[in-house]
Each structure stands twice: as structure tokens, then as C-alpha cells.
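In this section we turn from sequence analysis to structure. A common task in structural bioinformatics is to predict how a protein folds when a small molecule is present, because the ligand can shape the pocket around it. The inputs are simple: the amino acid sequence and a SMILES string for the ligand, here zinc ion. Study the lines below before reading on.
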Amino acid sequence: MDATTGIPPAVTEETEPFWAAAREGRLVVERCSSCGAESFPPRGICRRCRARTMEPAEITGPGRVYSFTVNHQRWLPGLEVPYAIVLVEFPGRPGVRVAGRIRGCAPEETAIGMPVAVGFEPGPGGFAIPSFLAVPDGGGS
Ligand SMILES: [Zn+2]
């Protein structure tokens, strides 16, 4: 599995801390220093109180699959299909949902609610992109 095929992300002032942390294998979102609301993707402005005093906040996971799609379309030459893209949410962090590929399970085994660990893999243009790792469910919920 290789995710380096594709278009490099556009880096803005707001998303730069995210990409910098991603290179170190850390998932960083924005937290408002005025009201504490967290959001992702980064916008540089709080969606709750409109403050512009956003600071980085690290998320360690694990998260859970909120929704997912399985892509069977070879959009670009060299793209391996099928693969699953998951949208992951984190307990106690309602403003944050992060999309990424999933590893450690077959695309057809991806399920809503399954636990995933935060991870990254090399993406286009030398960026590290979110790539979640399926966590075997120990029977708890
Ligand atoms: Zn706020």
C-alpha cells in the first residue's frame, strides 16, 4: 500500500502546524484559547466564538470510525484500489473529525464504530498524511 500517489496538500498559515506535527507523527488540531472549542480542519478562527486565538492541541487517540467510504475508482495512475477512507472522531472532542486512509484491515472489513489508532504515512509531495491503524476490538465497547 502506497499513498504517495496524488496531489500534494495546499499548505496555508492555518494548516501549517498540522503538517509540521504530522511529519513528527503527531495529530494536532486547533483549540480556541478563549472558549476551549476544538476544531479540525484548522481554519484559524473558532467556529463557536469566532475568536482568532487558536492554538495547537495534540490528539493521541484512539478514535472511532464515524463514517467511511471504499473507493474502487482508480482516479490516478498507480493508485491501488480498492481502499477505504475513514472519517474518525475522538471521545470528548466533538469538534474534531479527521479523514484518512485505514491500514490493518481490508477495505470491506471497515466498519462504523471500529477503534483506530492515529498514524501517518508518506503522502504526495513529501507530506505525511493521516493513515489510521485498525485496532483489534478487545470485546469492550
Ligand atoms: Zn472559541
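The radius of gyration is 15 Å. As an exercise, try to locate the residues that line the zinc ion site and compare them with your own expectations.
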